[in-house]
Amino acid sequence: MANCAVESSTDRLSEVEDKQMIIDRNPFARLRIKDTRALSLIQKRGKCDFCHKSRKFFCYTCYHPVVTCLHFPRVKLPIKIDIIKHPREIDGKSTAAHAAVLAPMDVKIYTYPDFPEILNKEETVLVFPNKDSAKNITVEDLFKREERSCDISPEIPETIFPIKRAIFIDSTWQQTKSIYKDQRLRELRCVILRSRISQFWRHQKKSPRWYLATIEAIHQFLVELHTYALGIEEEYNNFGDLMESNTDKWFDYCVTNNEEIMQKYNGQYDNLLYFFKYMYEKIHSMYNHNRLLAYKRPVK
Ligand SMILES: [Zn+2]
To answer: pLDDT tens, 242-255?
Structure first.
C-alpha cells in the first residue's frame, strides 16, 4: 500500500482517467517482466522447507520459494526495503511476500510489533503520507536535500541514492493507521509517491484506486528513486507504446549486479511485479475486468 498525490483539477482528472483506460487495457505491456508462462506450467503444489505446509510457488508465511529458481526472477535493489505487516493482515492476500521472495537479499518483512532497527533516521524514510500533509515530501525532495547537505562526487555509487532504507506498511487501508501511530515511525520523513493507479484485484472497502498494493508501491518508489538519480531510458518511458498491443513482448530480464543498477532506468525493478502480473492475468482470465469491484473505485 501507499498513497499517491493525484492532481486535483477536473481537467486533469479526465486526462488521468483517459490515460488510465489505456493502461487498464494492458497494464503490464510497458514493463520489462520475465515471461510468467513458466508459472502456468506448474500444476503441483510444493512443500515449504521451513514450515512444511503445502504452497503454490512460494510460502507466504516464510517468504520462501517452493519452486526452483528457474521459475522466477531475482531482483537486486539499490537500497534496503523493510515492510511492517499488520498482524491481522491475511498472509495469503498480501503482496508483501512477493518482494521478499523476488529480492531476498534486500527485503525484510516484520510482523508488528516486531520492528526494523532504524540505525540512521537521515538515511531512512517511511513511504506513507503524514497526517500533516505539509510534512510530506516527494522522492524528488530527497535529492534536493542531498544537494544541499553533500557535495561528494556523484561518480561514487554509494552517494547516488540519497537514502539507504525505505519502510513500507503492509495492511489494509483501515489497519494502516494503527501502525503509523508508533513513535519510531513518526520520527521518520514521510515520502509520498507520484500518481499511480492500482491494478490490485482485491477489493477494499472505502479505499480509492490510488491506494496501491504493497508490491506496486515498492516498485513505484524504486522507479522514482532510480529515475531521479540516474534518469530514464527514452524508449522505456514512451507512453505511445501502450497504444500498441504488445503482449507477446516479454523479457527474460534479471538484474544481478551493481553495474546494471547504475544504468538509466530501463526496467531494472519491474520483475518485482512478476507474481503480481501472473495473478492479475489469472484473475482476469476468470473474471471480466469491468465487473471486478476493485476497478470500479474512483481514480481520485
Ligand atoms: Zn513456510
So the answer is: 444 443 443 444 55
